[in-house]
Structures are given as C-alpha cells and as structure tokens.
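tool_call predict_complex ligand=adenosine-5'-diphosphate
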Amino acid sequence: MRLFLFLPIQGSLLVLTSFLNNSLEFIKGAGTVKAELLAAELGIRTVGDMLEHYPFRYVDRSQIMTLADLRSLNDFGQVRGILGPLREEGTNVKKRLRGSFTDSTGSIELIWFKGVKWMKENLLPGNEYMLYGKVTNFMSNLNVVHPELERIIDSRIPQGYLQPIYSTTEKLTKRGLSSKGIEKIIENIISRPELAVEETLPDYLRESLVLVPKKKAIIDIHRPKSQADINQASRRLKFEELFYIQLELLLKKELRSKQVSGFTFENVGDYFNTFYEKHLPFELTNAQKRVLREVRRDMKSGTQMNRLLQGDVGSGKTIVAALAALIAIDNGFQACIMAPTEILAGQHYQTISELLGEMNIKIDLLTGSVKTKRRREIDEACTSGELHILIGTHALLEDKVTFKNLGLAIIDEQHRFGVAQRAKLWKKNTRPPHILVMTATPIPRTLSMTLYGDLDVSVIDELPPGRKDVQTMHVKDNARLRIFGFMEDQIRRGRQIYVVYPLIEESKVLDLKDLMDGYESIARRFPTPKYQISIVHGRMKPADKDFEMNRFVKGETQIMVATTVIEVGVNVPNASVMIIESAQRFGLSQLHQLRGRVGRGAEQSYCVLATDVKLSSEARLRMKTMCETNDGFRIAEVDLNLRGPGDLMGTQQSGIVGLKLADLVTDVKVLQYARNTVMDILEEDPNLKLEKHLPVRKKAIDIMKNKPNWSRIS
Ligand code: ADP
Ligand code: MG
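tool_result ok
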C-alpha cells in the first residue's frame, strides 16, 4: 500500500485544479470582507469549497399558485401578489415586523422575528412581489413566517427556473450573503472560462454506472434546467462522496491486515463436525449459516479476523459464537467469551455448557465474584491449556489471566466495552487472536458501513422460525387500573411479568424512589402469599441480585420489578409481558432491547409502554414506532432520523458528520454500491497502479498524506 506514495503525480492534473484552489476574494460578488466571513461562518475558503456548498433544495419558479391554494397546500409554494403596509411592533429585544400580502383570492398576514430592520428598509409596500413560503398556524392565526419576497419588475418572471436554495447564516445574510447572494457568487464562478473541474472517477466506472461527468454534475447541481438535471447530478456527487469515504475505510483496513497477521485455522475437525451432526438442538437459520461461513472464511485466511456480528435480540448469536469456538478448539486453540455483566456472562456459561454438554470440552466461568481459590484453579487450567473455553466479564482482561494459546476472543454487546479494553484482549497471545464482536444494538446498515467500515460486518437478519411478534401497546399513566387488570389476567394464565423503571445515572436516588414506590403499589395490588414478587436494581449486592433473578428464572415469582439491569441478555421464555414505566424517558434502541426480553417462548407476548399523559411529539413518535414494528433495523432507522448520526452510540469520534450531499438514511443503495465498487477495484488493483485508476490513486495519496497514524489505529 505504501508503494504508490512515492510515485509522482502527473503535473497536468495540478494545473487543472489551480483555479479551484484560488481564494474566493478574487471572485466577483465575494471580495475580501465577504470571503473572510464565508471562511469564518461556513469554512468556505477556496473557489472549490464554494462549489461544494451544494443547494439543499430548489424552488420551482415556474409554478405559481394562488393564496387560496397555498393555504390548503401545507407546504412551501410560490404566490404572486401585492405587498401591503408594514408595521413594526414590540420593544428592542422582542421586535417583530408584520405585513400583509394580497392576491385575487384573498390576503394573508406576513411576520418576521428576525432581520426586522433590513426588511423594513428594503421592502417596498404597494409593489408586486413573488412570495415564497409556507402557511403556518401561529398563535391561532394563519400567516407566513419569514417569507422570501422577490420584487417583480416589468412583470418579467423567469420561466422554468429552478432556484437553488443554499444554507447560510444570520451574519452572512446581514452582509448580503443570503441564499440569493451565494447563488450569485456561484454563478460568477461557473461562468468563468477557466473553470476546469477535474474528473475524480475513472471513465470506465462512470460509463458502467451511468454517472454524469464531474463538471456537468457541478454545474447542474447549482444551475439545473430540469428536475432530471438535479437527479443525475446529485446521484453522481453522492456516489463520489460515499465512494471516497469507503476508499478511506477500506484502505485503512487493508493496511491493518497487512501489518497484523493472524492464525490460520485450516481444520474444521472432530469437535465442530460431531457437534454439528449429533448435538445441534435445532436447524440453523440461513442467516446463521451464512454468518458462520463468513467467520470460517476469515479464520482460515491467514489474517486476523476483525468481524462485527449484528443480530437483533433473539436472532441466535450465541450458537454462532459456540460454533466459532469449536473451530478454534479443532485447531488446537482456546477461545474466550466476554460479556458486560455477571448475569449475562452467567447465562452464556449456562447455555454454552448445556449446548456442548456431550462434547468433552472444558468450559469455565470467571467473574469478579469468583472466590480466590476457584479463581486460582481457573487461572491454572487456562494457562496450562486444559481449559478450552473461558467465559466471563471484564475480569478476563486482568493481567493474571493468561492463556496457553488463545485463538479466538468473542465480545458480546461490544458497545459496552471501550476500545482500550478490547485492545487488552489482543495482547493475550503473542499474535493477536481472531476477534468476533457481537451486538444486538441494531445499527442501520448505512451507519455501520460508515462507522465500522474497517471491520467486516455480518448480519443475522432472520429470526428463528415460529417466533410471534410481541404485541405492543401504549397507555397513559391514568390507565393504571387497566394495566393491573391485564397483569392479573396474564398471571392467571401462568405467565410471568417484568415491570421496568428507568435508571438515569445523575439521579440515582430519585430513580430508586420511583422503583420503590412502584414496587409498593404493585405489592399492595398483588399481595403475598398468592403472588410473589422479585426486585432487582443496581444498588443491590451481586449475590442478592442473582438470588432474586434466579427465583424469577425458576418461576417462583410471577413479577420482576427491576431497573434496566435486566436489559441485556436475560432469557426467561415463560415471561411474556414487559411493562415499561415512564417509557418516554427511554430511547428507541433501549425500548427495543427491553422488549426483546419477552417473545422468547411459544405464548403470545405483550409489551406495555406506560407514559406521562402529556408527551413531546418526539416521544409520541417513539411510542408509535414501537407499537407499529418489531423490526430492530426499522426502529434503528427511525432512531437515526430522530437523533441524527451524531447522537448514536460511538458516532461522535467517527468523523462522518462531514457528509455534504449523501444521506445515511435515504442513500443506502448508493452507499452499498460505492462500497462494493471500491472493493472490486482494490481486489483487481490493490496498489492502484493501473492507468484507468489514476483518479482514484491520486485521491488515495491525498488520503494517506492526511492520515499519518493509521497503522496505529485499531
Ligand atoms: P441473541 O442473538 O439475542 O443472543 P440467542 O442466541 O440468545 O439470541 O438465541 C435466542 C433463542 O433462540 C435461544 O433460546 C436459542 O436457543 C434460540 N435459537 C437460536 N437459533 C435458533 C434456530 N436456528 N432455531 C431455533 N431456535 C433458535
Ligand atoms: Mg445474546
């Protein structure tokens, strides 16, 4: 990969780009002051930067409607009419400007809260204007807030003009760089004869993907003549944007795989085959089979596996982990499985011990609460190689835990562990073991391709057969009696119930009080000895927690009142009702995780979301989404839409906020295409030496230059 860094870049390419590298101040309409302001406000410094400031929407200036139409449209539209007198109201701080606008179908009020002075000085009441805006209902008055107004002179209306709308800031607007001002600067750049836009994608690729040339795309995105122009231009530019992000990620991955060699697991031997043929308790789903093939391929490739396995709650990741461990054992290696909580580690230990019960394999469990003497036994068995699989919490990471020959490390719920903790697992053998990280936190494909683009991603996108969707309902707190009635009915049918309270770190005391109050009112309604209730929260000693948990697992208690400690991994198939209190305080992904605790048995399961009576519109959408779908990926997408990628777990450091045109939610297909294309190219021409890949190689050199520390990032 380093090779081509030393190869000279052809001079002509540099000449071509020089106009784009020019400072903006030399462009008509910009000038020094505006150029400085553009740099400060939007980070736009060069002509090239300006051209990459793409419009975020277009106004069709050929469509003119009446005010009556605009009123019923509930969207932005354009109306031609007369501007009425303007009236300034309020004090200095809370100044506003009102006006009116009239056409043959009636009048409407206009209102400005910002830019009052500028509007007042520049608008000319009594004249004909083209208004662009949306009718809103403000303080029970219909009006248009902050309309765009353009004066019509000589009755001349530009025909068929798709006006680009650019994002700008208040400061820029005050300096004349409203969207319109930016449009003018860009016009001036585009009409310059020396405008040369270098092609950044190989010709053969553009032809096969039917993408317009870069120069045409740039011109069309700013000055489209038709909707088709916009579509083609944005398709081309989005592809390019995503293509180069993927190139960066995949180069990084390649670099790592060259520098870190891995163990080669050539054999699929007795352990795997015997288990697969004789003891597999169910037929694997197609998705599980596919993932297993992907894992096997990695493990015998000679490079270290770094694979993320995504699968919704209940999709069956554990069996995949167990089978992968068997391959390691078949090749004379040990495996470890690390889980974030004692409860979860314990459950893995139990499940996997049962699965592999007939296999003569030695498995043990190591957590913080294992006593010193047992601990020493485990350490010894691990170091001598007698132990095949060690399951545990982060206790596994401690330096005294050494393996004879660790070949595979599996991490469940990887987002609960930091990068540093994962790195410790790497050091458990002279050569790093293969790494399989598993997560039930669904991340939309687009996001995982960008976030984890340097890992290989496998997805179990299919649930085992026979699962019934959990029925979800949203009830307000004032329906408490109905909820109790429902609980009673379910218990009479032999079911068990979870009641979960939110836990927020900052207010532990308050949360505990909520939980205790809830517990008391449930205990009054469901008294002993007829009913038994378990309670589990983060302040209890682990031993007490386990005791309470076990009573519920064994069916001795009917109701489990808990904080979110039960969120991860607990498996009680007879529990078929999940009641989530103050559900508005949970994010979508957490609600989905909690709901995943039920629906594991043969019975119809239910999830009740109890919320405050009054809800924000966002909370309402969360509840609605939960009631409408059980699909974790669908939910993750809504979540992404609501919160934006910046707020999703781990995305802060990922540097993907800089997307200019592509949208991680709506451009999934383009992204997938871009990624596949990059993979094909790197496969055919890993050093990008072929003539036809010159543009790609040039960009790769740029990328490498800016990322000197890549090889040290894991
Ligand atoms: P998760 O992906 O949430 O870790 P688990 O591995 O705990 O899911 O599996 C959930 C349940 O589904 C377990 O009871 C497991 O035995 C069962 N299961 C897994 N795979 C299959 C399958 N192919 N057919 C039937 N049941 C399965
Ligand atoms: Mg699991």
